[in-house]
Description:
Helix content is 60%, strand content 12%. Helix 2 (38-49) packs across helix 5. The model has no long low-confidence stretch (mean pLDDT 93). A hairpin with a 2-residue loop joins strand 2 (82-87) and strand 3. By secondary structure, the protein is mostly helical.
Amino acid sequence: MTTDVFQFERAAGHLIRRAHQISVAAFMDEASNFGTTPVQFAILTRLLKAPGTDQISLASSVAHDAATIGSVIARLERRGWLRRESDAADRRRKLLWLTPEGETVANAMVPCVNRVQERILAPLDADERRQLLQLLAKLTDT
């Protein structure tokens, strides 16, 4: 009989997964009227800041798999929130822009997503929030 049982409840991987679950649940609750996912919101906000970004660069900037981001983009395109065009210099390269409706939706979602951030960080005081965000940025190398 061993007394050194692995305490998964305190393991970094488990705690990060739980934090992710809490984050996604809060997002889905707050942004339910928009019918979007956190990745879709990240894409919309990135394109607000960098219109005309190519698909591969966009995938990297939102930390999403380049091979599967096309399906996420296609869903946003079908909703009329972004448009995709081939680069004139390289037809294989797809450039992306938000449509006026996509810009409106992205901007309208910001208050919801701000509430998500507040909900996620609610158990922490101001110093703990700052420290957690610094540590997460260091852990994710951003």
